[in-house]
Structure formats: structure tokens, C-alpha cells
Amino acid sequence: MSKLKGKVALVTGASKGIGAGIASALAAEGASVVVNYASSQAGADAVVARIAEAGGQAVAVRGDVSRREDAEALVAAAIEHFGRLDILVNNSGVYEFAALDEIDEAHFRRQFDVNVLGLLWTTQAAGKHLGEGASIINIGSVVTRAVPPGSAVYTATKGAVDAITGVLSRELGPRGIRVNALNPGMVETEGTHSGGIIGSDMAADVVAQTPLGRVGQPDDIASIAVFLASDEAKWLTGERIYAGGGVR
Questions:
Q1: Are strands 240-243 and 8-11 parallel, antiparallel or unpaired?
Q2: Residue 68 Cα distances to 71, 113, 154, 170, angstroms
Q3: How far is Cα 195 from Cα 217, in angstroms, rounded to an integer?
Q4: Where are the domains of the chain?
Q5: Bridge partners, 8 (sequence order)
Q6: Any coiled-coil ranges, and where (predicted)?
Q7: What does the H/E/C string look like for the chain?
Q8: For domain 8-189+218-235, is the CATH number 3.40.50.720?
Q9: Which residues are known catalytic residues?
């Protein structure tokens, strides 16, 4: 029996990478999915097409989560298309590395606006429609534990995600809404390829420090997201789940 039959999910930043993997996995378990994208309509349409080919339901909706009105429109689209909202995956995120002396306001604002403010706007809008049994999954990162050099701002945004997760689990818990953070390690995606990370010395160093001995794949993260979205995780809230193959 499908774990998420009858549920509706909104996955932000779902046109590629981890977000696309999560959207497809939620749909495979019976959820109807809003596939959000900021710029890559072709990518989002491809995700929707794959879901439809597998017999699922999905719709692509454009929106920049750092803009409050866009976040509200994404949630409205879920209600308009599918009549309800049960699962929110705050996956939209950007990363940019810089040494301390290279940090400027644009570097700071870009990452905090998407990674932190965007999460707050989307969750605020979704909270008006989520009911008992709903699940919010915030995508963090193992950088909050690994604290790599050159990542002060990015790591700070993901530290904020962890903290917000704990706060909202207490705020929304009385309504039966669960809030957890899913913190991946290095994952092979379009972004890590185009950024020159996969195949680099940095990636080799990460693999060398990973007990399971490889870089992660989107489906490694997606399967955990399905668990957190389902009733199998009904007693989990306010948790940080590190998914990096054991990397520290």
C-alpha cells in the first residue's frame, strides 16, 4: 500500500538534484506533488513528466521563495490544483563559498534570503493549511557538523535551518504538525557537477572521510524524506537527521 496515498506535497527547488529526487519519490508513494522551480522550467516540466509517466500526479509552479508573495502563491497553487496540503519540503537553497576576507553583503544576502527567509515565508504560508498529521521537512546540511573552511555564510544559513526546525516543532507540535531537518552530505547532482565539485580533490577528501565510502545520490536522500513525510515517522519532530554516509 502506498505510504502517502491521498496526500499533497509541495517541494521547493524541485527542478533538479535532491529536490527532483524527493518530488519523484513522494509521488511514487502516492502523493500529488507541486514541483516548484525558480528558473528552470524545462527541468521542472521534466520532473512532472516522469511522475506522470509513472502514473502519478504533479504540476510545475514557478516561484522565488525569497519573495513572500511567491511563497504564498506556491501554497495557493497546491490548494487550487489538489485541494489541500499535507507535506512541505523546504529544499530551495543556494551555496557559495568564500574565505572570510572575501565575504561581502551580496554573498551574505543571497544565501540568507533563499536558505533562511525563503524557508520562513513558505512555512508561514503553508502553516495556514496544514493540519494534524502534516509533515514539514527542512533540508539542511552536514556542514553544520563538518564546518568546512570557506563556508562561514553557507554554514550559518544551515545552522539557522536547524534552529528554526527546533523552534517550529514546538510551535506547531500542539497542532499535530511535525517539523524535522534532513541534512545531506555531499550528493552527486547537476549542481555539484556544474560547480566542478564532483571529481575534484574536495570530493575525494569527502569520500575518504565517509565510512560508507562514496558520494551520496539523490535517492539516498529521497527515501529518508518519504519516511519523514509518512506516518512511519509520526513520533519524530524537532529532529536533525544527518544523511551523509557517516561523514563527520
A1: unpaired
A2: 5, 11, 21, 23
A3: 16
A4: 8-189+218-235
A5: 32
A6: none
A7: CCCCCCCEEEECCCCCHHHHHHHHHHHHCCCEEEEEECCCHHHHHHHHHHHHHCCCCEEEEECCCCCHHHHHHHHHHHHHHHCCCCEEEECCCCCCCCCHHHCCHHHHHHHHHHHHHHHHHHHHHHHCCCCCCCEEEEECCCHHHHCCCCCHHHHHHHHHHHHHHHHHHHHHHHHCCEEEEEEECCECCHHHHHCCCCCCHHHHHHHHCCCCCCCECHHHHHHHHHHHHCHHHCCCCCCEEEECCCCC
A8: yes
A9: 154
How is residue 87 written as a grid cell? 507535506
Per-residue pLDDT of the chain (248 residues; tens, 9 = 90+): 699 999 999 999 999 999 999 999 999 999 999 999 999 999 999 999 999 999 999 999 999 999 999 999 999 999 999 999 999 999 999 999 999 999 999 999 999 999 999 999 999 999 999 999 999 999 999 999 999 999 999 999 999 999 999 999 999 999 999 999 999 999 999 888 887 888 888 889 899 999 999 999 999 999 999 999 999 999 999 999 999 999 88
Q: Specify the residue for cell string 533540508.
A: 139
pLDDT of residue 41: 97
Which residue is listed with cell 511563497? 71
Q: What is the pLDDT of residue 1?
A: 62
- Distance between CA 202 and CA 68 in Å, rounded? 36
pTM: 0.96
Q: Is the dihedral of CA 73, 3, 178, 219 positive or negative?
A: negative
Cβ neighbours of residue 200 under 8 Å, at least 6 residues apart? none
Name every residue whose Cβ is closer than 8 Å to that of residue 80 and which is 6 or more positions away in sequence: none
pLDDT at 135: 98
